[in-house]
Amino acid sequence: MVRLLTPLAFLLVGAAAAWWGLSGDSAETVALRQEVAELQEDLAQREFQLDMLRARSRVAQLEVLEQYPDPSSRSGLRTRFHFVEIDREGRSLGKGQEFTIDGALVYLDAQVIKFDDHFVESQDLLRGSSLLLFRRIFGEYQNPADGFVIDTVGERPLAYAPESGANAFQDELWANFWEYANDPAVSRQSGVRAMHGEAPYIKLVENKRYSVELRHAGGLSISVLN
């Protein structure tokens, strides 16, 4: 997308320069005016698409509170951390939760709904960004099925409250997640590109904070904040 924006911007500058070099309302001037207007519109659309691809659709924060040796654990180490979801304005959604895991590796098990790319291009407010449900958190030495529950599977996640624009359409997707994920016909009809699970993981370090985010184009990521 960046490679496309640069030549388009140069083309716009060239067209504008040629336009200003002309005077009057000749046919050539009118054509150049139209060309400049079209290039400006195209550039604005591409910039919007790039912003959408970079934008976060949902985030959370994870803060390591302490790490301490524990001979009774399989790894010999335990990690205690705080996990809280954050809205688009950076405000905490609830008080968050504290967890303690065996070892330092933590996995975030999530369900993700990704929509067709053309919804991003058309600035669709309902399907213009990916959706995420934090299913559970678990440590390296923990059975995933015994992981700590975050969101309730089958229900609309906390971040997609009614005031955020969620509606019956999203409720249906979450309630029938795996059924729809295995039904290509339903996916095509609803504009869904993919519905699947993701479980990125990271090694936690004491006194570090981490950001968890999902970009509009899809893809769950974890990065260090400090």
Description:
- With 226 residues, the protein is of the alpha+beta class.
- It folds into two domains: 2-53; 57-224, no CATH class.
- It is 32% helix and 35% strand.
- The chain contains six helices and ten strands, in the order H-H-E-E-E-E-H-E-E-H-H-H-E-E-E-E.
- The protein has helices at residues 2-20, 27-54, 117-121, 168-175, 177-181, 184-190; strands at residues 56-69, 77-86, 92-102, 105-115, 131-139, 148-149, 192-198, 201-203, 209-215, 220-224.
- Strands 3-2-1-9-10 form a five-stranded antiparallel β-sheet.
- Strand 1 and strand 2 form a beta hairpin.
- It starts with a helix and ends with a strand.
- Residues 48-56 have low confidence and may be disordered.
Secondary-structure-derived class:
alpha+beta
The number of domains: 2
The total count of helices amounts to 6
Average pLDDT over all residues: 78
Structure at a glance:
By secondary structure, the protein is α+β, with helices and mostly antiparallel strands.
Topology:
Layout: H1 2-20, H2 27-54, E1 56-69, E2 77-86, E3 92-102, E4 105-115, H3 117-121, E5 131-139, E6 148-149, H4 168-175, H5 177-181, H6 184-190, E7 192-198, E8 201-203, E9 209-215, E10 220-224
Antiparallel strand pairs: 1-2, 1-9, 2-3, 4-5, 4-7, 4-8, 5-6, 9-10
Helix pairs in contact: 1-2
What are the salient characteristics of this protein?
226 residues; alpha+beta; 5-stranded antiparallel β-sheet
